[in-house]
Amino acid sequence: MARVLMTFLGRTPKGETGYRTTRYDFGDGAAEDPVAFFGWTLQKRLQPEKMVILGTAGSMWDHLTEVDFDFGALAEDERLALAEKVEQQQVTEDDLHPLEPLLGERLGCKVCLRLIPYCRNEDEQIALLRILAGEVEPDDQVELDITHGFRHLPMLGLLAALHLRKVRSARIEHIWYGAYDPDTGRAPVHELSGLLRIADWIEALAVYEQTGDYGVFGKLIGGQVGTWLEEASFLETVKRIGQARSLLRKVLQNIDQSDDPVLLLFRDELRRRISWAEGDNYYRRQRELAFEYLHRERFLDAILTGWEAFTTRLQRERNVPLDPDNHQHREGVREEFDRHERNRKPRSSLYRAYDTLRRLRNAVAHGSQPKGEEVQRALGSREEMKGLLEKLFSELLPPD
């Protein structure tokens, strides 16, 4: 695991004395030397083990041989040839390779100089991501500088950061941007890695839409509140709705009091997804979950949750209070319903739907031999399964 500084080399205005320099301001009172390339300032501050400088065929590669370092080993004609190629925007990687060991010796770290495309289309943009990923090892700590480059580079920089986290398990420490103001001559440095937190929430929302698991937000919130959220999600998956509700009520109370700016951005959406916990209606939540699972075609979860929701419905229809989390109570009310309805002639449509769901549940939960043509067809076809469950739920799980 290494700290890697990835920085883009652009092209600033050049006068008779060289490229224009800027004194960057980190806001900490430190007096930085004026530089033409922000990467020098970051390298001095961060002291990475590896520095990757990326630029196009027309970037100011000749600046690397100018005032910042003494390149006595580089012949004058070689410097002039590189400057001419920069002017013609024809620099090649063969021109850059001789500079790498010279820079590495003077900076005290490994230096890699990489040509990148202009990122004008999808193929070139993907090529940039591939180049960046090729310079990062798993679990590296990455410092990404997007100061010098194309106007669309900040957007690509964010994508690159997300890509490196996924394909290299890299930890993005910072995203740096030095914002030069020509009117004032000042260049405040902005740290943009907070954008990654926003991207994480957007990704988590997408995962939730696919799975219905609000536990994905737990790690983003962190702390005790995040733990409560993850535990509540688990408890729902094992059909402990009451315990999940108790934890979610704590979550709701705490996120309403939070001043985390990223959480505030998504708080209303998160609240909407877990606000069911503010009520006491077990049946309504179980019914809602059953239909959510069916919509996402998570058929096993839909069957098991629908079965429990129907049992809760039976409990509510009795005249004596029963504990919805008590297994014996729930088994007892199902058995009573089964005895009463099984002996009726003819059997009611409610019982026929219940019996079909029971056989389907036994087949998918226990791997038993499916009984009945409807169940057999459902187990052989996604469309048949979805259609059968829609029909059964409409009979067994009416709106509250």
Structural account:
By secondary structure, the protein is α/β, with parallel strands linked by helices. It folds into three domains: 189 residues, Rossmann fold (3-Layer(aba) Sandwich); 79 residues, no CATH class; 115 residues, no CATH class. The chain is built from 17 helices and nine strands. Helix 5 crosses helix 6, helix 13 packs across helix 15 and helix 15 crosses helix 17.
Lateral strand order in the biggest sheet? 4-9-8-7-1-5-6
The largest pleated sheet is described as: 7 strands, mixed
Total helical elements = 17
Broad CATH class of the largest domain: Alpha Beta
How many domains make up the coordinates?
A: 3
Q: Which term fits the overall shape?
A: elongated
Beta strand %: 5-15%
Give the total of beta strands: 9
Please give the oligomerization state of what you see.
Answer: single chain
Which helices and strands, and how do they pair?
Elements: E1 3-8, E2 14-15, E3 18-19, E4 24-25, H1 38-46, E5 50-55, H2 76-88, H3 93-96, H4 99-107, E6 110-115, H5 122-134, E7 141-145, H6 153-167, E8 171-178, E9 187-191, H7 194-211, H8 218-221, H9 223-237, H10 241-257, H11 261-274, H12 282-295, H13 299-316, H14 327-342, H15 349-366, H16 373-378, H17 382-396
Parallel strand pairs: 1-5, 1-7, 4-9, 5-6, 7-8
Antiparallel strand pairs: 2-3, 8-9
